[in-house]
Write a structure and sequence with these properties.
The chain has 185 residues and is mainly alpha-helical. It contains nine helices and no strands. The radius of gyration is 17 Å and the shape is globular.
C-alpha cells in the first residue's frame, strides 16, 4: 500500500511490516534492514543510524540481519574487503555502528553472501576469521551452511539437492566446529 518513491519513516515501515503476520513480517523487516542500509551507503553514511534506536524493539534482530547482508555484500564487492586488514576494518565498522553483541549476525551474513556470490573466498575468509576469533569463524560457517541451503542450485524440489547441500556443508569446512556449524546452518 505504499506508492513508489514514498519516503516513509522507518517506524511506519515497521508498523506496516508487522501487520503482515508473523512469517511475512520477519522477512519484510529483514528486507527493510537491507534497504535502509543500502540507502545509507548510497548517501555516504554508515548504516548504523537506524539500528541502535530503542524505538525499534522487537524489530532489532531482523533489521540487523538485513543490514548485515548489505554490509557483507559491500565488503566482498571491494578488493580491500578481501584482505585480513579489510575484514578487521569491516568488523570494527559493524561494531561501531550497530548494537553491541551483534557481531555474530554480521559474520553469519558474510558466510551466506560469500558462499553464494564469492565461493572461492570462503576458505580465505574462514581462515582470517579463525585468526581473529574462533567463535566468529563458527558464525561464518553457519552462514555458509545457510548459503548452501538457499543456493538456487539446491532449491529444486525432489532432486536430491538438499542432500548435496548437506554433503557440501560437511565437506567444505576444514575442522569439526566448522562442519557442525555449516550443517546446522
Amino acid at each position: 500500500g505504499v506508492a513508489p518513491g514514498a519516503d516513509l519513516p522507518l517506524e511506519e515501515q515497521l508498523q506496516r511490516a508487522s501487520a503482515l503476520g508473523g512469517f511475512r513480517s520477519v522477512w519484510t523487516t529483514e528486507g527493510l534492514g537491507y534497504a535502509n542500509a543500502e540507502s545509507a551507503w548510497e548517501a555516504g553514511q554508515a548504516p548504523g543510524w537506524f539500528l541502535g534506536s530503542s524505538r525499534l524493539e522487537g524489530a532489532g534482530l531482523p533489521l540487523h540481519t538485513g543490514a548485515a547482508l548489505s554490509f557483507a555484500g559491500r565488503l566482498l564487492a571491494a578488493d580491500e574487503g578481501r584482505t585480513r586488514q579489510g575484514l578487521a576494518r569491516w568488523l570494527a565498522l559493524w561494531e561501531d555502528t550497530t548494537r553491541a553483541g551483534y557481531a555474530g549476525i554480521a559474520v553469519e551474513a558474510l558466510g551466506l553472501v560469500a558462499r553464494n556470490l564469492y565461493p572461492y573466498l570462503v576458505p580465505r575468509l574462514a581462515g582470517s576469521l579463525a585468526a581473529f576469533d574462533a567463535v566468529l569463524a563458527e558464525y561464518f560457517w553457519h552462514g555458509v551452511g545457510r548459503g548452501l541451503y538457499f543456493a538456487p542450485t539446491h532449491a529444486l524440489p525432489n532432486s536430491g539437492s538438499h542432500g548435496r547441500a548437506f554433503e557440501k556443508a560437511w565437506r567444505e569446512p576444514a575442522d569439526a566446529a566448522g562442519r557442525r556449524n555449516a550443517t546446522a546452518g
